[in-house]
From TrEMBL:
Domain Exosome complex component N-terminal: 12-47
Subcellular location: Cytoplasm
Gene: csl4
One annotated GO molecular function: zinc ion binding
UniProt protein name: Exosome complex component Csl4
Organism this protein belongs to: Cuniculiplasma divulgatum
A biological process from GO: RNA catabolic process
Cited function: Non-catalytic component of the exosome, which is a complex involved in RNA degradation. Increases the RNA binding and the efficiency of RNA degradation. Helpful for the interaction of the exosome with A-poor RNAs.
Length: 195
């Protein structure tokens, strides 16, 4: 039995809604978005009913990323020069590990020149990228066979986009959007968007 002030635990992945901001305050490894407290990483939910704080314990051990490592993240900011990514996972030696860091993609216009479908990425997209530079923030590229957007939402209605004939399509709005799409779009190994 859980007593007053003790924590309740369940397992979540990035994007899962933990609680609403009217019930709890956002804690470690969470984001507050549209009055919802959302998991920013995989791990066990810790809801402290005494302190009214919802957090996620991701059990992260210290991992040092290397050039060529594959990372998973969410697009947080997108402007004409640079895209900011919140990195939530890293593949090392074929094993996916929880990892939290900031990263960026520079010169998105290079993707647009190479591939018409690679028109852009949007805020909220879940991506798989490759580390090309290690520093204070990781520089990421989406160039590569397995790399690109894994999940995306419609920029108009926010419904999850489905892949139809090589283009992302919103079944709610009946419109298509362009992205640099990973070959396994819609079934990512890491991170899931919930409705």
């Amino acid at each position: 039995m859980i007593g007053m002030g003790e924590e309740k635990t369940t397992y979540v992945i990035p994007g899962d809604v933990l609680a609403y901001s009217e019930e709890y305050l956002p804690g470690k490894n969470t984001l507050e978005e549209n009055s919802r407290i959302i998991s920013a990483t995989s791990g066990e939910v810790k809801k402290n009913d005494k302190e009214l704080v919802a957090s996620v314990d991701n059990g992260i051990k210290r991992i040092l990323p290397r050039i060529e490592d594959i990372v998973y993240g969410k697009i947080m900011k997108n402007d004409s020069r640079q895209v900011s990514i919140q990195i939530v996972g890293i593949e090392q030696n074929g094993i996916l590990e929880n990892y939290m860091a900031d990263g960026y993609i520079r010169n998105m216009q290079d993707y647009k020149k190479e591939d018409r479908r690679a028109q852009t990425v949007h805020i909220g997209d879940l991506i798989r990228g490759k580390v090309i530079r290690v520093g204070q923030n990781l520089e990421i590229t989406l160039n590569g066979n397995r790399l690109g957007v894994l999940k995306s939402r419609c920029s108009r209605c926010r419904e999850v986009l489905v892949l139809k004939n090589g283009v992302l399509f919103c079944e709610n709005c009946n419109r298509s959007e362009m992205r640099k799409i990973a070959p396994d779009y819609g079934s990512p190994e890491f991170g899931e968007m919930k409705k």
